[in-house]
């Protein structure tokens, strides 16, 4: 099995989940607050373009994707995602240049909630659509007849966010079953943002010349670098870290914090105190996020077992999985060391974001691939109900010829989840055979 080199992702993968998510949210909207202060020195569209450019370049510098020249098809897919993200950033900045930050974010959630609801067409999806519609009406000022151009820009940003989710799911589906899929998603987005910003540079320059917009001062450009890091690089990376630790269903619940976070950041950094209707509207949007279905097929794509990058576009799991108890295979010294620490964290958790598990009936496959001839191995029998992190059945790398999937644990394995420890020894020829029972 292929292992990714231990890099920045190995350190981030061990970050606590809630602080990581909150840090990403505060960084994202803190960057937006900085951007609002730049609108007097450069148009919102220019600030949005610079944010995308610098955010993409920072992510590329951190991830250093080596496949850029050798995988042109992947670069094209990433560039399409980058163009949608660039458009979303620009339209969102046009919105927050006219309306409060909390209002814009609440309206923007119209996109992802609609994607989730339309993808399922169930009662829960309909309820979430009604809730988000009520929230958008309240925060937009419609009851008082004061709908602004800024609110309409926010609706446009929401539509583009929906497009980002759908396209992002298709880009992520290209990595189905690959080791380090979370890191690959970050690499794709970094390259996509960079390519999109560079490709649209002539348009940005041309429009600036035609409209007489002067070049932003060096200090403003430097702050745009800060905005790119805070609003793009940091939240995108931390979101992937959180996704690999808690799964997409719980991540969807965490997203309900974003409209509230945006309102708090707007009040603290920009002195944008929300009115009573805006508070009620934000609350309705939060309710819509909590109601939105967690397991949703990517809108506009065939129903399939592939998984997307967004919690709104998660696909059902495949059922082609061997029966039997779940086990983790490891050398006995590794288990003894883990037992003294209270949890098992093998290198794979830090390298690729998960721990390799197996059904008992299939454990001979990794045993023969990695430990042929060793007689110091043990099988840790696991009770999934005692495991706090998500277990997903996914393809191996490379995929098994019979189509078997293997369970991956996206978090540490607590020793309290291990119910029994069984010795596992090879036969006289050094190979391991399959087992139906212990």
UniProtKB/TrEMBL annotation:
The keyword Transmembrane helix applies. Keywords: Membrane, Transmembrane, Transmembrane helix. The keyword Transmembrane helix applies. It holds the Pfam family DUF952. SUPFAM superfamilies: ADP-ribosylation, Multidrug resistance efflux transporter EmrE. The chain crosses the membrane at residues 20-40, 46-63, 75-95, 101-119, 126-144, 150-169, 189-213, 219-239, 251-273. InterPro entries: DUF952 (IPR009297), EmrE-like (IPR037185). This is Threonine/homoserine efflux transporter RhtA. It comes from Williamsia serinedens. The lineage of its organism: Bacteria, Bacillati, Actinomycetota, Actinomycetes, Mycobacteriales.
């Amino acid at each position: 099995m292929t292992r990714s080199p231990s890099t920045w992702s190995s350190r981030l993968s061990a970050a606590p989940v809630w602080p990581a998510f909150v840090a990403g949210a505060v960084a994202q909207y803190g960057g937006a607050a900085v951007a609002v202060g730049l609108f007097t020195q450069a148009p919102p569209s220019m600030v949005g373009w610079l944010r995308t450019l610098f955010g993409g370049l920072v992510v590329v510098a951190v991830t250093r994707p080596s496949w850029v020249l050798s995988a042109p098809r992947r670069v094209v897919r990433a560039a399409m995602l980058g163009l949608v993200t660039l458009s979303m950033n620009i339209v969102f900045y046009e919105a927050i240049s006219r309306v409060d930050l909390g209002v814009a974010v609440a309206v923007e959630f119209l996109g992802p909630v609609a994607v989730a609801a339309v993808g399922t067409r169930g009662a829960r999806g309909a309820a979430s659509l009604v809730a988000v519609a009520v929230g958008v009406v309240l925060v937009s000022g419609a009851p008082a007849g004061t709908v602004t151009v800024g609110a309409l820009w926010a609706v446009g940003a929401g539509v583009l966010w929906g497009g980002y989710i759908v396209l992002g799911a298709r880009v992520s589906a290209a990595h189905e079953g690959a080791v380090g899929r979370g890191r690959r998603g970050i690499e794709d987005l970094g390259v996509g943002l960079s390519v999109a910003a560079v490709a649209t540079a002539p348009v940005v320059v041309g429009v600036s010349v035609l409209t007489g917009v002067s070049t932003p001062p060096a200090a403003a450009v430097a702050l745009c670098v800060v905005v790119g890091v805070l609003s793009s690089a940091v939240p995108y990376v931390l979101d992937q870290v959180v996704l690999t630790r808690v799964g997409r269903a719980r991540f969807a619940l965490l997203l309900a914090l974003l409209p509230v976070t945006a309102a708090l950041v707007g009040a603290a950094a920009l002195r944008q105190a929300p009115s009573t209707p805006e508070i009620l509207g934000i609350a309705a949007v939060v309710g819509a996020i909590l109601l939105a279905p967690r397991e949703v097929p990517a809108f506009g794509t065939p129903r399939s077992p592939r998984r997307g990058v967004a919690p709104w576009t998660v696909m059902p799991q495949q059922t082609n999985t061997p029966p039997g108890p779940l086990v983790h295979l490891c050398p006995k010294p590794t288990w003894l060391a883990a037992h003294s620490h209270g949890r098992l964290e093998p290198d794979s958790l830090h390298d690729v974001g998960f721990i390799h598990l197996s059904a008992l009936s299939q454990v001979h496959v990794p045993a023969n691939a990695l430990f042929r001839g060793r007689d110091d191995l043990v099988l840790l029998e696991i009770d999934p109900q005692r495991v706090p992190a998500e277990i997903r059945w996914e393809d191996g790398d490379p995929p098994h010829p019979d189509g078997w999937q293997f369970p991956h644990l996206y978090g540490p394995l607590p020793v309290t989840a291990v119910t029994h420890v069984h010795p596992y020894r090879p036969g006289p020829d050094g190979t391991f055979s399959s087992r139906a029972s212990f």
